[in-house]
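sorry to bug you again but im stuck and you know this stuff better than me. what follows is a protein written twice so to speak, once as letters and once as structure tokens for the fold. mainly i need to know what kind of three dimensional shape the backbone takes. anything you notice is useful, everything is just below:
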Amino acid sequence: MILAVYFLIINILAFIRYGMDKEKAKKDKSRIPEKTLIAFAVLGGAFGAFLGMHIFHHKTKKKKFYITVPVFCVLWLGFISFCLWQNYHLVVTEYEYTADFDCNIVQISDLHNQLFGIGQKNLLKKIENCDPDIIVVTGDVVDISHRFYGIAYDFFQGAVEIAPTYYVTGNHEVWLYGKRFDSFKTDIEKLGVHLLDGKTEATENMIIAGAYDNSNVLDYGWQNDSRLKILLTHEPELTDSYKNTGADIVFAGHNHGGQIIIPGKGGLISSDFKFFPEYDGGQYKIGDMTMYVSRGLGNSLAPVRINNYPEIVLLRIHH
């Protein structure tokens, strides 16, 4: 979203500046320096510059323009294509867990109001293809920088039609607490979403609890229960607290896979600005507890992922 706004603005400005310089040339007024016009193309406004050159018939015979501007159109087109592929190419990461029953769990995390098709069609289709028995959502479906709840609502509306959906909030939800966000939570609960902030719900084979963001993990009263104990949370770092609850499985997110994955080193930076975070994404065995950390779907720290596609986690529980 940030990149889209940037490219839109700089290309509009480039187009306007080329038009202004043409008018100045006609009226023999002080001109816009050529290095400024070239700079617009170099900094991302190449498409606006190219359009301005041909609409206004300006600089089309000057070599530095009729070569430089098209070259940067190609370069920026390649860069934009790369960014779109990195940010929107959905992948499914599968894990297996042994228990005395069969169940497919899909984890969604850190949507951050990212749009994957109209009405989240592409994301929901990918989830449906995983054939989930339940869907767990581990926070940050919305984003502090663009507080539009419609995209997150569309996701939940489609998710509950696929499978029972359990949701725990993250730090971006905490930052948005207020009447509008309360209304959003009410609306999604009306859809059938199970909001688990500080709560537990039980099924035949599982107990699912939710530790909302920045909360002290509570005693969920499940230590003597023989069912599989699943804890949903957003922050992955509080492993000692999670282990003390007696959880068998923890689902977390937050770190966006480290934003940039460096081969052989892992994720570069966490959402809390820590370099090479321990829990950037994947499966972690911590005593008798197994934690699955999603690389998430959207962005907040930076507008582009590198070597780090948006991820759906699929956990196959089987005998």
User: Anything to note?
Assistant: Residues 63-88 form the longest helix (26 residues). The chain is about 35% helix and 20% strand.
